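Response to reviewer comment R2.3. The reviewers asked that we include at least one raw input/output pair. We reproduce the pair for DUF6970 domain-containing protein here without editing.
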Amino acid sequence: MRSALLFASLSIITLLSAGCQTGVNVTTPTDAPVSGSVYGTDTPAPTSANTVMPTPTRSSIADTTGRPAWLRERIQKILAEEPANPPVQVFRYLYNDQVVYYETAPCCDFFTTLYAADGKVICQPDGGITGKGDGRCPDFPKKRTQETLVWQDPR
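Raw output as returned:
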């Protein structure tokens, strides 16, 4: 019973802590306890090594050419709001032979947004409580091509 409760607690903690931590890998020190037993009262000494190793974003250079007027306006709206963690990014893709723009979610259970080239919302391909978005374009992750980072919140 105790191990099942511990497993459930760790699962919940993992889900909650992973929600907004995109692009981060966490490792755990593996020093053995002093007594050699994990059931004793000894706790491994903390290590001085960094146990959080950030992973690079998909692309560090944003393509600033050809941003449509609606997207420039959208970027200004985002910049007028509080900074999100992780920072909002906008990617351009080719999807169903059309240019589309994908705006990442500011955090956790928020929906991402997929815009047509004219700025109309196509769908919300992922995010939300289920992580599957609004269900209107479930093939987007598989069919998108030609990823280009168009903008990332610099704050």
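The chain has two domains: 2-54, 69-152. The helical segments are 2-18, 69-80, 140-143. Further pairs are available on request from the corresponding author.
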